[in-house]
Amino acid sequence: MIEIICLIWLWGKIGNMARERGKRPGKYRAITFALWFGLETLGTVLGFTLGAFLFGAENAAMIFAYMLGIGGAAAGALIAWQIVKKSGPAGQNGQGHYQGNLDPDYGMPGYGPQPVNQGGYAYANEDMLGTPAEIRLITSPLPGELFTDFYLNGQWVCRLNSGCEYRFRTFTRKNRITTGSPDPVPETPENTVKFIAADNGSIEIHAETGRLLPEQFLNRRGN
To answer: Are residues 78 and 112 in the same domain?
Structure first.
């Protein structure tokens, strides 16, 4: 029972680590599954063989097999963890483009040079949020290495492969998210979304094969 709970936790954790790196979680979960049960089986067989050879008694051999089996599963989990960890830094996808181009607190007072005004949706110090809003960019899981470039107020934010998610915060009240280009022409609901963020708000923006999905757009007000 404990083994199942540990595997379920690891399954979710490996998936989240893969998403943070712009990778497909299914691939790394499959690696985790194979390493866990593969090394557990190997450890059990070796443990029983060594236990029988060293101790002779079947009960002692079974205990030795159980111990090496657990050790093998733990080793498999550690190897899987290192594989996904070394697949790229958090905030980087398989294309090698950093996702965290913007400061995590974009628009904060004193934040770098102010962006060029994009149709009135660049921030101004007199119209800022007291508490930042969180923006979640989510791409639909589809086969193939499809990616989408996202821009906020004319500045590149990230490139996401399909089936990935990226989160960041903004202090700007008026915002403009575009895909494919910082200033697409013509503007359509499939390449541009403009919204007013609320203090401590939460915004979800979904995309698929380079186009926005306006029907899934969410803009929640904060508490």
So the answer is: no
Q: Which residues of 106-140 are buried (b: 16+ CB within 10 A; e: fewer)?
A: bbbeeeeeebeebeebbbeeeebbeebbbbebbbe
- pLDDT tens digits, 128-143: 888 889 999 988 887 6
Q: Which of 56-70, 81-95, 142-156 has the highest mean pLDDT?
A: 142-156
Asked whether residue 152 falls in the same domain as residue 203, the answer is: yes
CA distances from 21 to 13, 91, 161 (A): 13, 5, 10
Instruction: Give the pairing type, strands 165-172 and 128-139.
Output: antiparallel
Mean per-residue pLDDT for 68-85? 86
Same domain assignment for residues 110 and 216: yes
List, as one string, the DSSP characters of 85-97: HTT--TTB-TTS-
Task: Say yes or no: 45 and 121 in one domain.
Answer: no
Q: Is 22 left (phi over 0), alpha (psi -120 to 50) or beta?
A: left
**% of the chain surpassing 70 pLDDT:** 75
Does the model's pTM come out above 0.90?
Answer: no
Our count of domains for the chain comes to 2
Residue 91 lies in a domain: no
Domain of 209? Answer: 105-220
Question: Are 185 and 114 in a shared domain?
Answer: yes
